[in-house]
Amino acid sequence: MASKHDILSVLQDVQSGALTPEDALLHLKLAPFEDLGYAKVDYHRAVRQGVPEVIYGQSKTKEQIGGILAAMEKRGSRNILVTRIGQEVADYLAEQFPLRYEPLAKLAVALPEPVKGHGSIVVATGGTSDMGVAEEAAITAETLGNRVTRLYDVGVAGLHRLLGNLEPLMSARVVIAVAGMEGALASVVGGLVDCPVIAVPTSVGYGASLGGISALLSMLNSCASGTSVVNIDNGFGAGFLAGRINQMESAKE
After folding, report:
1. Among the four residues 71, 140, 144, 161, which has the most C-beta atoms within 10 Å?
2. Is the pTM above the cut of 0.90?
3. 228: helix, coil or strand?
4. d(Cα 68, Cα 90) in Å, to the nearest integer?
5. Residue 65 lies in a domain
6. Model pLDDT for residues 177-229, shown as the tens digit of each residue
7. CA nearest 108: which of 145, 67, 151, 66?
């Protein structure tokens, strides 16, 4: 896997004369992506974004996911996130690669390595039913090097549960608020904290919740300043964005 360090090493080798400019150009040409026929594996993702390519598993066959992982493993990738996969696919992949699978989140971390967490991200849910999406967010953030605190089942139906956990909320750099039904949790949290709040509407709720659209619209119309919204059930997107914000703050220290 090409990284910023790898490219810097190539440039230093050219500077020292250990590598010709032509050989360096060939090295960089080979690095960007590999065409597997069914997927073009982006090896420069880590250079551009600091994180290897994430595999969206839904609608891919287990063989396709395995092929992508094998290609990334050859390039030295580690802690590869594979989202939206079931137990059967995870079992198939685990026969070929070291794999940590979280069934609640339907998320796997392939070729896992220890990661030191930095900063403070809080993931809060309105109810227990929102935990699958919340775990997708939390594990994503942790895998990308962030420290995560979970506050589950602290929704507005029992507001004292949230108010009893003000200390981790007040010390967080980012809060991810995950809620279905009417999605009120994001507005309440947004009115309590001085950090960015990422709202995640979930598809949890009765008929008029419209598969999460009611929560989505409520969060989009929040009057709490500093609140942003990702798509319905998009725990991965929230965890990734929270990690970016948290890492920016960590870099200032």
Report:
1. 140
2. no
3. strand
4. 14
5. yes
6. 999 999 999 999 999 999 999 999 999 999 999 999 999 999 999 999 999 99
7. 66
